[in-house]
Specification:
It holds the Pfam family ACP_syn_III_C. InterPro entries: ACP_syn_III_C, Ketoacyl_synth_N, Thiolase-like. Helix content is about 30%, strand content about 20%. By secondary structure, the chain is α+β, with helices and mostly antiparallel strands. It folds into two domains: about 200 residues, 3-Layer(aba) Sandwich (Peroxisomal Thiolase, Chain A, domain 1), CATH 3.40.47; about 160 residues, 3-Layer(aba) Sandwich (Peroxisomal Thiolase, Chain A, domain 1). The strands form four sheets. A nine-stranded mixed β-sheet has the order 5-4-6-7-1-8-15-14-13, with helices on both faces. It has a two-stranded antiparallel ribbon with strand order 2-3. A two-stranded antiparallel ribbon has the order 9-12. Helix 3 packs across helix 4 and helix 9 crosses helix 10. It is globular, with a radius of gyration of 20 Å. The chain starts with a strand and ends with a strand. About 45% of the residues are buried.
Length: about 375
């Protein structure tokens, strides 16, 4: 088995940073009324700026595959060109279309040579699953290198016009025409961007990071769907897909909008997260005190203190001074967030040889978790 190193890291954040006060202008007001939930959500998540693939007039500047392509192209130099890629593995929560696959579309924009492609589905863990596929491919010797990416273009899913038919339908029924909080909530949480890693079987680059192991856990056998799109959840918890609805229901119910069961999220995301963390640390006989940098993908600062207390209560406390996050600056970029965190840390000048970095990514869709341990070489 080969060793696997992250030898280059890149990011692409489209356009300019968007402040909290600009968000509703960018995404649009629904039914002529400002969102009642926006200030509450922003106060809790403590995100100050984020990025959208929209210009100042609200026009789309990049699709998802183009965001990934922009990040990946920054990995190329005279020592590694697009012609050298063996494997392209691209994860996302928000593909531009159902078919072709996301990685196929990214490959199309790159216009490089023939390569193997992989498109893991899912939400935030899709980026880590893209990384794991590349890691296993290089480790097994199947390929000498791999590019893994995580990217999101979620802004166009959250624009006000997406919900216009639903509001009109509620008005026709003489119901209160206010967007349900489980849909409005995520409009103020998610944003656009992309990150990419180059994986190689030799420790090239200035500060290569060796991937020691990766682990993943799912709790779908215990819990129903929590975050979903392309369907609606029935009272019994069953997720009914868009293909079983009438086409008129697609817009009247905003079936393709992303929705979050906030109560289910709060009751389980931290508990299952720490349970999976304990499983990973125990399996690899890793003590929390041996982790120099802990990079948790947290959707909101609302969960930060609660996560720490859950870790303390379960005997897996990682000291605050070892945590590294950039949520407040770049926002919650789903599958790309862990790439953006590691990119900032790797280019900070803080890393020292021998240090251990733990990547931690939860996915609330149906409660999945992914981990990776890295060593600075």
């Amino acid at each position: 088995m080969k060793e696997v190193y992250i030898t280059k890291i890149s990011k692409f954040l489209p356009n300019r940073p968007i402040s909290n006060d600009e968000m509703e202008d960018k995404l649009g007001i629904i039914n002529g009324k400002a969102s009642k939930g926006r200030r509450i959500v922003l106060r809790n998540n403590q995100i100050k700026t984020r990025y959208y693939a929209l210009d100042d007039d609200g026009n789309v500047t990049h699709n998802n595959a183009q965001l990934a392509k922009e990040a990946i192209e920054q990995l190329f130099d005279e020592n590694f060109t697009s012609s050298d890629i063996d494997l392209l593995s691209c994860g996302t929560s928000s593909p531009d279309q159902i078919l072709p696959s996301h990685a196929a579309m990214v490959h199309g924009f790159l216009k490089c040579d023939n390569v193997e492609i992989n498109s893991p589905s899912g939400a935030c863990c899709s980026g880590m699953n893209a990384l794991k596929f590349g890691f296993l491919s290089v480790k097994s010797g199947q390929t000498n290198n791999a590019i893994a990416s995580g990217s999101e273009r979620i802004s166009s899913w959250m624009k006000g016009h997406i919900f216009e038919n639903e509001i009109k339908h509620l008005q026709a029924l003489e119901d209160n025409p206010i967007l349900a909080f489980n849909k409005d909530f995520l409009r103020w949480m998610l944003s656009d961007g992309a990150g990419a890693f180059l994986l190689e079987n030799e420790p090239n680059g200035e500060t290569p990071l060796r991937i020691e192991w990766m682990e993943g856990y799912s709790y779908a056998h215990e819990l129903e769907a929590c975050m979903y799109a392309g369907g609606d959840k029935l009272e019994n918890g069953f997720l009914k897909p868009w293909s079983e609805y009438k086409t008129s229901d697609w817009s009247e119910k905003s079936l393709f909008a992303i929705k979050q069961d906030v109560k289910l999220l709060s009751a389980n995301i931290l508990k299952k997260g720490v349970d999976s963390l304990k499983r990973a640390l125990t399996k690899h006989d890793l003590k929390p005190s041996e982790i120099d940098y802990y990079l948790p993908h947290i959707s909101s600062h609302f969960f930060k203190d609660k996560l720490y207390q859950e870790m303390v209560d379960n005997g897996v406390e990682i000291p605050w001074e070892n945590w590294f996050m950039n949520l407040s600056k770049v926002g919650n970029v789903g599958s790309a967030s862990i790439f953006l965190m590691l990119e900032e840390l790797a280019h900070s000048g803080k890393l020292k040889k021998g240090q251990k970095i733990l990547l931690s990514v939860p996915e609330s869709s149906r409660f999945s978790y992914a981990y990776a341990l890295l060593t600075v070489c």
